[in-house]
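Following the same procedure, backbone shapes were mapped to integers, yielding the entry below.
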Amino acid sequence: MQRIACKVEYIGTSFAGYQVQPNGRTVQEELERALTKLHRGTQVKVVASGRTDAGVHAVGQVIHFDSPMRIPEDRWPKALNPLLPADIRIAASQHVTQSFHARFTTTGKQYRYKVVTQENVFMRNRATYVPVSLNLEAMREAAQLIIGTYDFSSFCAANTSVQDKVRTVTRCEIIQDGCELEFILEGNGFLYNMVRIAVGTLLEVGTGKRSPADMEGIIAAEDRSAAGKTAPADGLYLWSVMYAEPLFQQAQK
């Protein structure tokens, strides 16, 4: 058996999330259906770097699976993409060792969140529309206060079962291109809804509901009620997943 790692892109709009569930179309279900068809009815299970919620997109989701098929490592996209629906695409693939695990060997992730301040039909369901002017400098000042190692309980959905909420954020940056804003958050791991809550809080800073200095107190409170609203799912993208040994280098050349 050969272990294959794949970089997966998908538009999350019509999915009930990544993980298979009793009701609702999911990314995992579509991937496993295509792999099972390719393997002539033999069921193939996939493991992902993590789950994404309903409506969340991915540019760099990583999965792995084991296969007895002797397909060259860079040919898996051509083998699988014709079997997948139009809103999922295998972007790259390579052979990995049996010790590789898409979820448990990650060293970090990058998420991006897209906001538009002017309605754009082509960005509908791909970005969140905020119909007010935003103070970019204030948001950038607040974003810098998120960088570091903290207990991020204030930025975690209250119904999570995770006990250890300490995470390290290494990058929190906001890029503007005309009426489009891109929030970039990178770190060693993220709690449930952490990025969306962080963005929602930063947007409240941008509209003047909070000051940049409030961010320190929000983090220190370690209480979900101290932070802002959870930003909608449609602006969120799982952008990339990092490992000790970089993947898909050949595909990126």
About this structure: The first strand starts at residue 2 and ends at 10. The mean pLDDT is 96. Residues 194-206 form the longest helix (13 residues).
